Amino acid sequence: MEIKVNENNIERALKTLKRELQKDGLFREIKRRSFYEKPSEKKKRKQRDARKKRMKALRFRNVSNV
């Protein structure tokens, strides 16, 4: 990842960097790894994420058919 600083505008570059990291899911990953996750909780989380991903894909597929 590369963020360019234009005209010494550090604040804007930091804002852009934070937005990119948020989009990549880095903050969520750090928060998730900061505590031990039991295998059963890990399985439930993966199932929940897969369900959300399926529903999102289904929603976008239905919009394109309209």
Q: Can you tag this structure with a few keywords?
A:
66 residues, mainly alpha, 76% helix
Describe the protein in words.
- The chain has 66 residues and is mainly alpha-helical.
- The protein folds into 2 domains: 35 residues, no CATH class; 30 residues.
- It has 3 helices and no strands.
- The longest helix has 27 residues.
- The radius of gyration is 18 Å and the shape is flat.
- The termini are far apart.
- The model has no long low-confidence stretch (mean pLDDT 90).
The rough form would be described as flat
> Please, how many domains?
2
Question: What's the helical proportion of residues?
Answer: over 70%
Task: Give helix and strand order, one letter per element, not per position.
Answer: HHH
Oligomeric state of the chains in view: single chain
Radius of gyration: 18 Å
Largest sheet, strands/sense/barrel: none
Q: Report the total helices.
A: 3
Number of strands: 0
Task: Sum this structure up briefly.
The protein has 66 residues and is mainly alpha-helical. 76% of the residues lie in helices and 0% in strands. It is flat and about 50 Å long.
How do the strands and helices of this protein lay out in sequence?
Elements: H1 10-24, H2 26-33, H3 39-65
